[in-house]
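Design a sequence for this backbone.
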């Protein structure tokens, strides 16, 4: 009789403990909205959630990189547009200087205006990006364009790449040489020679003007080509941003199916568990209150 009573108490206690744990788990699901509380609850689901966490962390970095890349490309695009405008103005002034009726003084005045454009172009070439680095591909602390021995030279390009996705990166600018040189045309030195010819009225001034006009026209085409390349990269960044946003949305949906609890299901499960637990407790209380006389009846 004593052994049977001990077994009865032990079984009832274990059952109520299990039901209480199940009820607590259901209440935790309701309060957190998550059905996966510990990796041990479902190892496969926990591994999926861990992978989602890793992807979310990677995407947070890529999102920042995409924003930075878009900003730098936009800055390069805008600056190239300004460079193109300045070259076009220089071409118009060269065309004006080609007019044979201009006096030497008037040509010298045109030369002064073109010199200002040349200097503005050098300033644009040596612009700094949003990070404080040379915009057109020079290494940190150096200028992309320098005047040496009366001629303009270009620092070796060191264009940075920014990772924007797994296995993908994008160059956020171009080297200054790519902007100002096309074939045998070197825009800044073409302008330099033109300024000298117009201001000093020495040498074959008319020939220098004609050569400059041809090369400035080619420079315009080259700048437009470079700007189109930058624009294509901007479009790529925008496309990748859209793909990333869609991937994040899809991942959040998958995570929800793996991790999130159904409120209605959780409440129903809690109610059912509590009903069974209360019934078990009532039965236990009733049975433990019976006297020996009750057992013998």
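Sequence:
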């Amino acid at each position: 009789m004593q052994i049977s009573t001990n077994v009865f108490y032990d079984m009832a206690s274990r059952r109520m403990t299990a039901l209480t744990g199940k009820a607590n788990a259901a209440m935790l699901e309701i309060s957190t909205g998550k059905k996966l509380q510990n990796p041990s609850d479902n190892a496969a689901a926990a591994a999926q959630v861990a992978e989602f966490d890793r992807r979310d962390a990677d995407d947070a970095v890529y999102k920042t990189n995409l924003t930075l890349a878009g900003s730098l490309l936009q800055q390069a695009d805008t600056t190239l547009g300004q460079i193109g405008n300045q070259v076009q103005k220089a071409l118009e002034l060269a065309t004006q200087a080609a007019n044979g009726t201009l006096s030497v003084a008037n040509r010298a005045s045109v030369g002064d205006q073109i010199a200002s454009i040349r200097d503005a172009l050098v300033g644009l070439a040596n612009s700094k990006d949003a990070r404080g680095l040379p915009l057109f591909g020079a290494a940190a602390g150096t200028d992309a364009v320098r005047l040496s021995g009366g001629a303009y030279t270009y620092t070796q390009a060191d264009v940075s790449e920014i990772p924007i996705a797994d296995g993908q990166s994008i160059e956020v600018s171009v080297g200054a040489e790519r902007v100002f040189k096309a074939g045998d045309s070197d825009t800044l030195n073409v302008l330099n020679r033109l300024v000298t010819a117009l201001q000093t009225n020495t040498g074959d001034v008319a020939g220098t003007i004609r050569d400059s006009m041809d090369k400035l026209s080619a420079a315009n085409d080259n700048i437009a080509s470079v700007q189109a390349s930058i624009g294509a990269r901007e479009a790529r960044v925008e496309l990748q941003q859209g793909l990333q946003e869609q991937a994040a949305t899809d991942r959040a949906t998958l995570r929800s199916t793996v991790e999130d609890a159904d409120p209605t299901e959780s409440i129903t499960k809690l109610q059912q568990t509590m009903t069974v637990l209360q019934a078990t407790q009532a039965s236990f209380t009733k049975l433990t209150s019976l006297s020996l006389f009750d057992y013998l009846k």
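The chain has two domains: 1-35+262-294, 60-254.
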